[in-house]
Amino acid sequence: MSVPAVAAVLCPLGSHRVVEPAGALPQTAWKVDNTPHARANEILCAVETLNIDSASFKQITEACGDDPRAIGAHIMATVHERGKQHNAVTGSGGMFIGRVLEIGAVLAARDDIAVGDRLASLVSLTLTPLFLDAVDDVDVATGQVRVRGKAILFESGIYARLPDDLPIEVALAVLDVAGAPAQVRRLTKPGATVCVIGADGKSGLLSCAQARERAGAGGRVVGIVPDASTPGARLLVEHGYVDDLIVADARNALAVLERLPAALPALADLVVSCVNVGGTEVASILCCKDHGTVYFFSMATSFTAAALGAEGIGKDVNMMVGNGYAKGHAVVALQTLRDHPAINDYFTARYAVRG
Ligand SMILES: NC(=O)c1ccc[n+]([C@@H]2O[C@H](COP(=O)([O-])OP(=O)(O)OC[C@H]3O[C@@H](n4cnc5c(N)ncnc54)[C@H](OP(=O)(O)O)[C@@H]3O)[C@@H](O)[C@H]2O)c1
Q1: Percentage of the chain with pLDDT > 90?
Q2: What predicted TM-score, i.e. pTM, was given to this entire model?
Q3: How confident is the model at residue 9 (pLDDT cuts 50, 70, 90)?
Q4: What angle do CA 228, 279, 192 make, to 5 degrees?
Q5: CA-94 nearest atom, ligand 1
Q6: Which of 67, 104, 204, 278 is the most exposed place for a label (fewest CB within 10 A)?
């Protein structure tokens, strides 16, 4: 067996694990060394479940014809080839839940983590060295994949101890998208109008809850969904998380535009893109008023389509890349669930009860 050539110096960002290309950091690397042993500045975890990022999982399921075995084989092949679950088509990853097996000597003084703790990684699988023995089960409905394997967290990596009051599949689903509700909480001003695209998915529901809370009685929250009959869409209306729903395919900018005078006459101060498909950038920008903000949380966002789309329709809007990290995001996301029993029930029914 050949030993990958890796940098000898231990880097807090994990560059010592980069196999190729030289000079890259783990996220941009094509391949990382996934040897499942902790170096002095690393944490080794036994991985139980992967939550594959929604844009990535949709692409993989489509390529594999919804066949769980083929999806499992696809994931094994990616990890074998790249040393990490980094989807070459969407460029996105996901996160994992596991137990701490070993803490390197450099990190031994950390008091927030101990061997045996169960944690969720809050850094992307696209930069996490992952070694898989097997994929045991693929839940096609949720993108959660039960595996046996090991992963490495770097010195700079962030993680959250799993809460005691939530089923782990629910915590995993929420923590995967924790950046969205945290950013929406930060960006929504009292009295603001907020439009959430892909409002009935995980990040969409949590974002609507935060937008409703922050915008308050004088604000307005509008969701865009492709189908008003989904449990998520019904919840949004029945529990008043949205004032209105636009039922449209957000890839069809003209269809969205047609509905704006009725649903968003003054357009939105903040537009949040939570879709898992590409081609929705222009519709997102159309929903935003001049000098408003479009927060592209979606991993299916094209920088080119957003930049040229805004220019092409003459919109002077601020556009934010969906940084998955915001200070305290895990706490905000989990608290959003605790504060909103209807959303908690939805996540529990969808993620905690698996056949
Ligand atoms: N920035 C980050 O760090 C980060 C982290 C995690 C995830 N993400 C990304 O964030 C996005 C949302 O993730 P998620 O886990 O919340 O996904 P999700 O639960 O699968 O929700 C996606 C939503 O998009 C809706 N949608 C799909 N096609 C649409 C269309 N053409 N028009 C309008 N709505 C449409 C879906 O509606 P239906 O279900 O009715 O089809 C669904 O409600 C994904 O792109 C994911 O990759 C980003």
Answers
A1: 95
A2: 0.93
A3: confident
A4: 60
A5: 6
A6: 67
